[in-house]
Every structure is written in C-alpha cells, then in structure tokens.
User: Fold this.
Amino acid sequence: MTSTKQVSKNGILTSVTALKGVGAQLAKKLEKLGIYTLQDMLFHLPRQYADRTRVTPIGSLQPNQSVVIEAEVRGTDVVFGKRRSLICRVQDNTGTLSLRFYHFSNAQRATLATGARIRCYGETRRGASGLELYHPEYQLLSSNAAHSGLEETLTPIYPVTEGITQNRLRTLIKQALTHAKDFDFRGYLALLPTDTPEESAPAISIPNSLFEPLAYLHAPAKDADLAQLLAGEHPYQQVLIMEELTAYQLNLLRLREQRQQQAAVPLAVDKALEDQFIQALGFTLTSAQQRVVEDISQDLRLSIPMMRLLQGDVGSGKTVVAALAALHAIAHQQQVVIMAPTEILAEQHRLNFEKWFSPLGICVGSLTGKQKVKERREQHAALEQGVTQVVIGTHALFQDSVVFNRLALVIIDEQHRFGVHQRLSLRNKGNEHTGIPHQLIMTATPIPRTLAMSAYADLDYSVIDELPKGRIPVETVIISQQKRPEIIQRIDYACQQGRQAYWVCTLIENSEALEAQAAEEAATLLASTLPNLTVGLVHGRLKPVEKEQVMAQFKAGEIDLLVATTVIEVGVDVPNASLMIIENPERLGLAQLHQLRGRVGRGSIASHCVLLYGDKVSLNGKERLKAMRSTSDGFKIAEVDLQLRGPGEVLGTRQTGDIDFALADLRRDLYLMPKVNAYAQAIITLFPEHIAPLSERWLGKNTHYAQA
Assistant:
C-alpha cells in the first residue's frame, strides 16, 4: 500500500506511479490521456454518466436507453448472417430481450446457459429480433442476488485509451480522491473580487476549494439529476467550466505576451514594388482587401513576429493579399513559404504566384510529395542557398531535410487541415539571422466572430468581408433525386452554351474507396447519357499527376463536365464553370457545402448550385440544406454550422487536436466568455503567480501547442 507520506511529498503534483498498481507500463498508457500526476487524474473528468443504481423492467424499455436489466436466460444460439453472432434471449416477468455478441468464445456461450440468472448493462437498440443489447457488460447472479450489488452512485464514463478500461480508471481515480483529501484544491477564481465579471454574465458561486465539486462529479449521488449532468448544467460543472475556460484564455493571452518578447525581422513595405505588382494585376483591390493589406503591413514592419488570422469567404481574394504580404519579405531579401493542404491547391498557388512574380524577377519554387528525388534535391538546394525566394508546397515542407536560407514569413492556407506539430515545425525553421518567422494564417471557412475571438485569442484577426466587383451570387436550389433526368438535361444545355459544370459525389460511409467507386460509376453513367460532352473524373485515389492532368484539362476547357469527389473542395478556380451538382449533400457539413459551392460563381456570369438530395434526410440535414438555399454569406452559414455541429467541427483540429476540453464546450458555453475574459484579465492584474498553476491544472502538457 502506498504510504501517505510518499504521496503527500509532492502534494497534488505527485506522479501517478505513487498509486497502487501503477507501474511504468500503465503510467505510459495514462500519458496518452494526458495523465502524469494525481492532479491530472482528478481533473480527468467524466464525459457521460450511466445510471446503474436501479433495474429497469424489460417491458418498459425504449430504444437508445442505457439501462440495467435482470433476467433469466431462455436460450442461446449462434446465428449466421452477414456476420456470425451469439444471440442470447433473456426474459423477466415483463418481457423479453436479445443480447447480441459479435466477438465471443465457446466458454462464454456455455456460461449463458438456459436458466441462468443474469444482470446486464448496455444501450438498447433496434435489431433483427426487436430490442437488443449489443455487447453488454454482464454478470451471472445467484438466486438470492437479485437487486443486490447495484451501484450506490451514478457511474462515470471517462475518455479512455487502448489498454485502460473504464473500471481500471475508476479504481485509480477513487484512490486519487482518497489521497487528495489533504491537498490544497484552491479555486483560483475564488481569489478574485466578486464584482470582477461583467454584470450581464450569469452569476456562478465559486468555492474556495474544488475538492467537493471534483469528488461529486466523479461519483454523483444516485438521486442526482442525470439530464442536468449530461447537459453540463450542474452547479459543480459550471464552477469547473468557468475555471477551465479561464485557464484556456489565460494560456492564449500568455502566448500573445510571449510573442511580444520574441524577435523577428522587420519587413517594411517597398511601395514601388507593391505598386508595380498591383498595376500588373489588371483589377482593383476591394476596400476590404486594402484594409487587410494595411493590417498586415503594420504587423510586418515590427520586430516581433506577426501572428494574424485572415478570414475571407470563398472568392474574396485572400491569395492576392498573401502575395502582397510575401512582397514585404522579398523586398528585404528574405524567403517566404506558402503551405497548402492539397497538391491541387498547391499547384494552383504555384501557377498564380509564378504568373504574378516571374515578371518581377522573383524565383518561385515548389515542394510536394509527387516530386522525384532529383527534383526534390534541387529544390532543397535552391532553398538552402537562398535562390528560391518563395516556395509553395504541401506536407513535404515539414521534413527535416528542408532547410531555409533566410525564412521570414510563413503563410498557411486552410490551417485547420494541418496537425499542430506540423505547424510548429514550420515555425521553427527560422534561424539566428531571421529569428521567429512572421505567420499569416488564412482560412476560407468562416468562423463566427464570437467563437474566433475566444478560440484564437493569441492571434490578431482580419476579415475580408467583401467580394470583388462583378461577382454574381450563386443561386442555390434543392431538388430531389427523382428529378435527376431533368438536372442532366440542364447540364447538357449549359455545356452546349459553352459553360462547364461539376458533378460532386459525396463521401460514402467514410470510405475513400467507396467514394471513388461512386464517382467512377457516376462518370460512366453521365458519359453514356451525355455523349456530346467530354466527361472527366477526379477523386482521391488517383495519383497526383493524374489529378493535376484532369484539372488542367478542365481549366483549359477541354473537359465539359467534371465528375469529382470532395477533393475539389478547396482552391479550384475555373471561372467558366457555372453549374455545380452536389449529389447527396445531406452527407456533408455546412462549411464543406459552402466551400464546394464556392467553386462556381468565380466569373461574371450567373451560376447555379443544385443540391440533389436523397430519400432519407435527417432533421439536421434538412436544416443544413435550408441554410444553403437561404444565404450565400459564409459568416451567416458559419453561425448555423456552429449551432448544428459545434465548435469542434467548425474549428477543425485546433479544438480537437490541440486542446481537448475536459468539461467546457465552446458552443454550449460561449455565453460565459464575457465573464471568462474579465476573470482572465483580473488574474493577470491581481494574481499573475497563479497563471502557471492554473494552466498546468487544465491544459497540462498541451500549453505549448497553441503557439502553432
């Protein structure tokens, strides 16, 4: 047994190896959950709860309930269908139910013998034989054990990882709670004056010690309001959510402050070079573009690294703004790297930048996974020697073998598609001459301002909220698959008029192979139905060189109708394409649908997007389609997307990969942010010594990731 002395030596920061049964091997597994200390263990909070305190009669069960039942086994058989399964029929005095196991042994089958008494826990689902429990937890009961041995509290359901079961984690957390009674679980927000938060924010009572809220949430009373807990609305949850969001906000503000202490090369604008570039464009920048260019210029002329998030709806002209930012570095003999998430988008950026920069004598290079070894080595050498001034690429830019001569500016397009470690690796490619590179992070996925200012508090923030003159909004219509023949006729008419069209096949069961197959079948069918048109095909399973060849033919007008998967979502710019058909759009999120729609309407002619929906559309799916039809404003769509899908989907990997909230949910708890911001500022002013321990408590080892 671990001694109290051993555990209390380092207090709350004692290693989890001090707990009974935790050796080096288990500690390594716990690290995958971000658990290193007793504090980490105690703040690893349940995401859900199960009520195992009472038995539910089978006759009163409804689908999708998590329940405990007690019944007698009436028969057990192996059933052969698409998959072999073990079916166990059980019965109490109110009804019958099936237990289904896809993974089972002969010993298990023998245990579930007719007449045996059994207690099961699981979630009810509709199955072939009526209501079923799939792979339920169960135990055999003796004749006198009925309704005994049930849980005395609600059962917590924790985030787990391979090699750590729920029961193992519950046992360890109970141990940690026992030791923690003597620890200082101060509530940092309780130190602040009561009048600190904004008056409009809801009042939440912050206790001096968080031990009681933690102990309760790890084992709520059996009569607790389960619905309230699952909604994150219990007062104890609210206390901890406030502290977690404050810790998150403090970390971002601290990163911003640290950035102010770092050195970067100041890059004042070269007005003559900028004017030469703009005059050669052949069009006038919008007022929104001019405003954002000035924001970026103000940042780049400083000797601290820029960290600016640039949002702009599809077609708003972010790439031109990025080019103007790049000119700042080039004018000072520094290098620029532009990172794109796909080879299609990287190739398009390369073509644009070469068209713009080559007349100015600027050397543009590229680095992608498709390049052969010799070509890649030549590109590496040109970068290291400083010959290449602008390099555009994909994940190949992250490799250790890529060395820059004087990297001063990193431009990341669609940054949420990259992992945090990848973004960090680019940031670290500066050297003693250039310091930390300036960063411009671009996204065409509109993020609601309230969410962006909370999730990206470490970044400065600019928005291009104006489309170039002459752009006509895309008209969106929603049509049933039953009218598919009419839509095909419409494609034929549009292409006969000299226009081009997209036919987009959406993801099937998260399978790229099935999606590619569906696109191939659609292309074959459309080609036979429209013999007068040239039909092309592009999907994720084609080789990069094949994809580029098809896209080049489409852009050159050699292909009338391009059948594609969602690989065309980002960066494809074909002004002559005026019609897009999206098949089964209900499978996609709003942001993705909006991105796809942005592939048309890029010229000065009227364009249309047809959402060709299937037979079964969920209520949520109908809301998405309705939003697409009602507006072309990406920011309005983002607000709806936030309501329907939540911030994890809207923000991408930044929330799901960089900082994994224990309790908070930015969508649900966004209304707390005014109060959180006030708390964060008050702690910075009054108790700066508590910033580090508060961040360590809630963010643990993830605090540095937000620098990316």
Notes: Residues 101 and 482 are 40 Å apart (CA to CA).
